[in-house]
UniProtKB/TrEMBL annotation:
It comes from Actinoplanes campanulatus. Pathway: Amino-acid degradation; L-tryptophan degradation via kynurenine pathway; L-kynurenine from L-tryptophan: step 1/2. It is an enzyme of class 1 (oxidoreductase). GO terms for biological process: L-tryptophan catabolic process to acetyl-CoA; L-tryptophan catabolic process to kynurenine. The gene is kynA. This is Tryptophan 2,3-dioxygenase.
Amino acid sequence: MSAQRPLENGIVRDFKVNLSYGEYLHLAEILGGQHPVSVPEHHDELLFIVQHQTSELWLKLIIHELRAVQVWLAKDELRPALKGLARVKHIQRTLTEQWSVLATLTPTEYAQFRSFLGTSSGFQSYQYRAIEFLLGNKNRHMLSIFDDQPEARALLEDALASPSVYDEFLHFLARRGHGVPASILERDVTEAYEYQPDLVPVFQQIYENAEHNWDVYEACEELVDLEENFQLWRFRHLKTVERTIGFKRGTGGSSGVGFLKAALDLTFFPELYAVRTEIGVPH
C-alpha cells in the first residue's frame, strides 16, 4: 500500500493565469501581518497577535451580517433577518471559545512582552465599538478616540446615526400591528437605547400568544440569544484578563478587570428580559 496519494489528473497546477487559493484570500498580506514588537522577540507574542487579529476578522463579519439584518427588517423580510442573526450567534460562539486559547498564556509569559504593547488596547477596537452601536449601546464620546483613524470614525459615525437592529425590529413590529409606543419609534437614534416600561406589555402580548405570533416570537428569542452570547463573550474576556494580569490597569488606561465587570451590567434589549417577570401574571 502506498503512503502517498497521487494527484488526480484534473487538479489545476498552473497559476500563471488561473486564480490560486492564496491569491484569492490575499494570504501573503494576511500571513505577513504579524509583527511582534518585543525585544528580544517573545515566543508567545505571536499567539497574542493572532488571537486579536482573528477576532477582528470575525467582528468584521458580524458587522456585515448585522447591517444586512437591519436592511431586511426595514424591508419587512423577517426570515432572512433571522438567518443573519443565527449566523451572528455562531460567530459569537467561536469568538467566545477563542478566549480558551489566549488563556493558555500564563501571567509570567505575558509579563515578558506586555510592556512593549505601549498604550495599545482592545478598548481601541473600533469594530467592537461599531457592533455595540449597531445593537443600541451608543456613545458619541467614543468617537474622539478614533480622530486619527478617519475610516474608523466614519464607520462609527454611520452606526451612530443609523437606527440600531433593535430600533429596526421595533419599527417592524409596529408595521405588523403591534402597539409600539410612538415615542419609542420617534426617539433620537443617536442616543443609547434605554429601558421603556410601556414596551413590556407589547412583548407580553407576543409571548403569551406565541401561537399567533410565532415569527416575531422567534425573533424575540433570537435577540435574547444574541445578547446572552454577547454577555458570555464579555464574561470570558473578563476572566481571561483576570487570570492573566490580575487587577492591573489596562494598557489603554482603563481600570482593567473593574472596567470589564461594569460592562456586564449593560443590556441591549432590556424589555425582552423584563417581560419574563410579567409572563403568566394576571393582567
